[in-house]
Amino acid sequence: MFAPSSFLERHLSNRPNHTVDRRVLFLALFPLLFPTATAQAAETTEVPPLPVPSPAAAGPDRQAPVVMLHPKLPLPPRLVFEPGINEPAVEHVFRIRKGQSLMAVLTGAGINAGDAHDAAEELARVMDLRRLKVGETVTVTLAGGKAGGAAGALSGLRMKKDIRTEVGVGRLLDGSLQSFERQRRLRREPISIQGEIASSLYADGVKQGAPAAVMLEVFRLFSYSVDLQRDIHRGDRFALLFDRYREVDGVDADYGEVEYAALDTGGEKIRFYRFETEPGTFAYFDAEGQGVRRALLATPLDSARITSSFGRRRHPILGYSMMHRGVDFGAPTGTPIRAAGDGTVVSRGWKGAYGRYIRIRHRGGYQTAYAHLSRYAKGLRQGGRVKQGEVIGYVGSSGRSTGPHLHYEVIVNGRQVNPVTLKLPSNQSLADEALERFRLHRNEIDRKLQEMAGSQRADAGISAVN
Where are the beta strands (DSSP E) in 215-267? Predict the structure, then answer.
């Protein structure tokens, strides 16, 4: 067995004055060289290839594409791959981690650095790669069933640019890479969910039909102003409004942002609305136009229980009463700990009885401290910047501790205060024209919710009669 490209190189190098196009000659010879592959390609012609998009940027260095490789098709006859193309193309899905570039994702998948660089450079024509988000997925297509790690096996890749747009890169017959962008045909459906809390906001929301990703967003949204471990009780009610996107065949494709979230707890009614403050910029506000976001989160864990409050207590190890200047959250070892606010890491390391310890300085004279960690988040260093909600470490039992938990402190102007009772002002408030626009938007959301509630009651009545 020999490589067709090598055969052609020898054939053409002996005839320097010949004007036959290499690709034309190769395609003419291919059925004789690889009859099995040719037969297989012919058998799969009933599956249409992707439509070939126009080049992302015109110019003499951008040749018109020959053919775009369909991710689901076996490879067509091409110049660039060795024999072995009888096998179908295979796909692998990779999730982007913190600090990881697209090129790092591809090289980590075993693709050679040259192909990874070319693919990233080509994709940058249709997408700003500086805006890749942690958790986004990249679907990589490898040629001829070759496993990741085989140099030169990249056939293409694709990923979501936004809910309605998919972008990617495909290899052409001439071996070059071509970017593409296409619109997904989706139907947008508003979804309204209401429920009563029996176990937890997160679990009961999922039980009522909200996807886990939506409930995680809701959980973090309320964590700015509500202690989700102490302030929510059985019988409290919640309501949500978000969009669902479906393919034309009815298959769920994606979910939009939470447009509205409400929580009735302890006689307090909390309403949050998503609002576009300026083109392309969104934030959440309460019914009066006060921003939801605060300087610090009410709790730095997504799921935990308070095992020891702020104040004087009998120490569980030392056996005598002393001041406990923080709050202890009981949680399993390895539970992610999130930065309570934007800031700078001023301390990271072992601190006696505190064990593995982090302290962060925030604006306005605030600092937060996190103790007894099992380990730090990768890349966290003293002097580094962190964002509110970013994972900085993981729950453990290091130092003087009786079991896995997080000891959490808030320091205001050098003095430790009770994190639970601390009231923080909003980071953003609407006024004037923006406030008027928000009120119109709020009224429209409320009207939509009433209409959907009436429709749901009517449907329930029909079902009861039937």
Answer: 237-247, 252-265
Q: What is the pLDDT of residues 333-390, one digit of tens each?
A: 999 999 998 999 999 999 998 999 999 999 888 999 999 999 999 999 999 999 988 9
Buried b or exposed e, range 64-83, using 16+ CB within 10 angstroms: ebebbbbbebbbbbbbbbbe
Calculate the CA dihedral of residues 50, 56, 59, 65 and round it to 10 degrees.
Answer: -10
d(CA 179, CA 350): 49
Indicate the DSSP class of residue 132.
-
Residue 40 sits at φ, ψ, to 5 deg, of -65, -45
* Sole residue written with tokens 């679907």: 139
DSSP state of 145: G
390-394 long-range contacts (CB < 8 A, ≥24 apart) are: 390/338, 390/339, 391/98, 391/336, 391/337, 391/338, 392/337, 392/338, 392/339, 392/345, 392/358, 392/360, 393/336, 393/337, 393/356, 393/358, 394/333, 394/334, 394/335, 394/336, 394/337
- What tens digit of pLDDT does each residue of 95-113 get? 888 778 888 888 888 888 8
